[in-house]
C-alpha cells in the first residue's frame, strides 16, 4: 500500500501506545486493528498485520520480564506448547467456520473479568494454593485461551491474567509476566498461518512492530515499578472498554 509519511508516523505512534497498554493489561489490538482499517487496510490483512506487529510487542515485554527474573521459560514450557497448539488450531478453524457465536459471548466474559478484579478483595496478592496442577493448567488454560486468541483474540491477555490469578494463585505482577509469554506464543503461532496465506503487509507491520516493541518495553517497566496498584485498575478499565466496543459493533442500535 502507498501511504504518506504522516500516516505511517501515526501508525508508529499508535502501535507504541497500544504496546504500552497491552504490556500492562492487554487489549492493544483494540487500538491497532481499527487504526489499520481506518487507513484502508482490508480486514483480513489488517488482522494479519496486527498479529505481525503484536508479536514484536509481546516479545519485547516477555524478554524484559524473563531478563528481570519474573518468569522462567523452563517452568512454562508445557503452557507454551499447549498455547501454541491451541492458537494454531484456532487460526486454522477461523478460516472455515463462523465466529459469530463466539464473538457474541465475549463482551459478557470481559464484563465478568472486570467485576472479578474490581470486587474480589484478595485479587492479585498471590501466595494461595493453586486450584489446578501445573500440567492441568497448561492443558486447559493454555489450549483453550490459545485457541481463542488464534480464532478471534480481543481480551485474550485479560483471560490469561485472570486465570493465572484465580487458578494458579500468582500475584498480579507475576501473572502479567506469564501472560505476556503466552500472548507472544499465541500471536506467533497465528502469525505463521497468516504468513503462509500471504496476508501480512510487511512494510506496515514491521514499522508498527518497532513502535510496539518500544511501547511494550516501557509498559513492562511500569508493571515492575508500579505493580498491583496500576495493573488491577488497568485490567478493569481495558476489559470494560473492550466489552463496550464489541457490544457497539455487534448491536449499534443500542447506542442510537
Automatic annotation (TrEMBL):
Transmembrane intervals: 78-95, 101-120, 188-210, 230-248
Membrane topology according to the record: Multi-pass membrane protein
Keyword Transmembrane among record annotations: yes
One family name in Pfam for this protein: TauE
Superkingdom classification of source: Bacteria
Keywords: Cell membrane, Membrane, Transmembrane, Transmembrane helix, Transport
CC terms in the record's Gene Ontology section: plasma membrane
Compartments where found: Cell membrane
UniProt record similarity statement: Belongs to the 4-toluene sulfonate uptake permease (TSUP) (TC 2.A.102) family.
Protein name: Probable membrane transporter protein
Amino acid at each position: 500500500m502507498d501511504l504518506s509519511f504522516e500516516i505511517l508516523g501515526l501508525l508508529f505512534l499508535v502501535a507504541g501506545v497500544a504496546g504500552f497498554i497491552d504490556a500492562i493489561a492487554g487489549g492493544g489490538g483494540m487500538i491497532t486493528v481499527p487504526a489499520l482499517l481506518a487507513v484502508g487496510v482490508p480486514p483480513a490483512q489488517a488482522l494479519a498485520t496486527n498479529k505481525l506487529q503484536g508479536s514484536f510487542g509481546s516479545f519485547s515485554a516477555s524478554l524484559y520480564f524473563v531478563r528481570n527474573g519474573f518468569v522462567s521459560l523452563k517452568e512454562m514450557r508445557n503452557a507454551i506448547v499447549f498455547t501454541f497448539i491451541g492458537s494454531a488450531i484456532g487460526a486454522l478453524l477461523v478460516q472455515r467456520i463462523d465466529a459469530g457465536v463466539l464473538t457474541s459471548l465475549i463482551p459478557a466474559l470481559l464484563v465478568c473479568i472486570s467485576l472479578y478484579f474490581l470486587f474480589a478483595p484478595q485479587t492479585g496478592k498471590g501466595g494461595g494454593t493453586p486450584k489446578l496442577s501445573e500440567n492441568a493448567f497448561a492443558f486447559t488454560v493454555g489450549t483453550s485461551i490459545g485457541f481463542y486468541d488464534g480464532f478471534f483474540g480481543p481480551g485474550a491477555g485479560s483471560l490469561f491474567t485472570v486465570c493465572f490469578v484465580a487458578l494458579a494463585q500468582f500475584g498480579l505482577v507475576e501473572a502479567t509476566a506469564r501472560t505476556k509469554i503466552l500472548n507472544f506464543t499465541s500471536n506467533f503461532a497465528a502469525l505463521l498461518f497468516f504468513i503462509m496465506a500471504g496476508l501480512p503487509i510487511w512494510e506496515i507491520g514491521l514499522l508498527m512492530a518497532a513502535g510496539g516493541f518500544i511501547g511494550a518495553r516501557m509498559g513492562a517497566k511500569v508493571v515492575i515499578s508500579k505493580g498491583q496498584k496500576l495493573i488491577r485498575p488497568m485490567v478493569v478499565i481495558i476489559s470494560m472498554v473492550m466489552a463496550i466496543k464489541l457490544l457497539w459493533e455487534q448491536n449499534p442500535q443500542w447506542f442510537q
